[in-house]
Amino acid sequence: MATVESNLRRLGTSRSRRLLSGSRIALVVLIGWFLLARWAGISLSMQTQAAVYLFGMVALNLPYGGYEHMVNLDPRELSFGLRYIAAYLALVVGFVAVFFVAPVVGLALAIAVAVAKGGHGGLRVLDATVGTSHLKTTAQRALAAFVRGGTVMIVPLFFWPGDFAAFSTFMVDMFEMGAFASVAPHFDALRYGLGAVFAVAAVSHVAVGYLRHETLSTWALDAGETALLIAYFAVVPVVVAVGLYFPLWYSARQSARIAAVESDTLDSGPDSSRTAPGTAVAAFVGGAIATFALAGLLFVLLPNPMAGGTLLISGVAFFTVFISIIALPHVVVGSWFDTDRGIWYVP
Fold first, then answer.
1. Is residue 344 part of a domain?
2. Nearest Cα residue to 146 out of 121, 109, 116, 125
3. Number of compact structural domains in the chain
4. In angstroms, rounded to a whole number, what is the distance separating the alpha carbons of residues 151 and 209?
5. What is the distance between the alpha carbons of residues 12 and 261, in angstroms, rounded to a whole number?
6. Residue 345 lies in a domain
7. Rounded to the nearest 10 degrees, what angle do helices 46-54 and 238-245 cross at?
8. pLDDT tens digit string along 237-256?
9. Residue 347 lies in a domain
10. Structural Rg of the chain based on CA atoms
11. CA atoms within 13 A on the CB side of 256
């Protein structure tokens, strides 16, 4: 038995390393491809970019979000699961209401959620896989999470302002045509302001981490990945960048965290409180059905579901809004509310 458990731990650690390496290689390849394409004068049409986004976010990444909740709720008591689901649904309803009442505010909240998800989730991956000894305080960890998450939204906002504004307009127009016009005169100021804040935060994060590091390799890996993410979102067009970031980086790295955590928890023996596999699978299937039912209901309720765009373009806008709506409770309920375990659990 000891040999089997030792082999499983090595397998989990090995799988974790492969997933982490694969996520970095994927981003490097995409950066290289788009740099070469730019040099050769080749560009992807917006329709093609939209198709890539929908494949990455809906076909690849959306099921993984359900898997995160399944892994989290699998060992929990039924009473906790019911409170979890109730809180999740309440936040979904609340976020939908915000979009209908004040769509520009809903858009700002959606951007903040993406930053929180990419940042906080990414930080927990570092905790589980390579360590964060260079992050000494809560404030420093918050800064690290903001920088990691800020690469997902603030960097493309700065480097791809036209595309970012266009899809923001489509997202808002689904709820109220022309509502984004109130933001448009201030868009450049917002772009440069957030860009400056992010630049200061990124430099501060790397510099303070270096000054406080215990193991140079841990700090260097964090700094290197931060630079890689900035380069990725600066070079790759925003629609493709966001659409592929979540399956190729976020989901792959969360899988690496799970592999690392599972290899560690083998030391504590089997968990007799875990629910039956059939129950977990049923919850996963039920969650998938409920998710797509919610998407269908939202589409029916929207005043302008196509927002004047083509099928693919409007599809990107719609699913960005929808994924943002379910991502808010994903972060708040799935992690911050669940202080004992959470979707980004690290022992």
1. no
2. 116
3. 1
4. 18
5. 8
6. no
7. 10
8. 999 999 999 999 999 999 99
9. no
10. 20
11. 27
Examine the pLDDT at 266 and tell me if it is beyond 90: no
Question: How does DSSP assign 224-284, residue by residue?
Answer: HHHHHHHHHHHHS-HHHHHHHHIIIIIIHHHHHHHHHHHHHHGGG---TTPPPHHHHHHHH
Q: Which helix (H) or strand (E) holds 106?
A: helix 103-129
The Cα 185–Cα 324 span in angstroms is 25
Residue with token string 């959606």:
110
Contact predicate 298/322, CB 8 Å: yes
If DSSP codes are grouped into helix, strand and coil, which group holds residue 137? coil
Question: CA-based angle 136:257:89, to the nearest 5?
Answer: 95
pLDDT single digits (tens) 195-249: 999 999 999 999 999 999 988 999 999 999 999 999 999 999 999 999 999 999 9
Question: In angstroms, rounded to a whole number, what is the distance separating the alpha carbons of residues 290 and 296?
Answer: 10
Q: Is 209 exposed, middle or buried, given 0-12, 13-18 or 19+ CB atoms closer than 10 A? A: buried
Domain containing 82: what range?
Answer: 2-337
**Residue 343 falls inside a structural domain:** no
Counting Cα atoms < 13 Å in the Cβ hemisphere of 317 gives 30
Question: Using CA atoms, how far apart are residues 183 and 316, in angstroms rounded to an integer?
Answer: 21
**pLDDT for residue 282:** 60
> CA 293, 296, 302 angle in degrees (round to 5)?
140
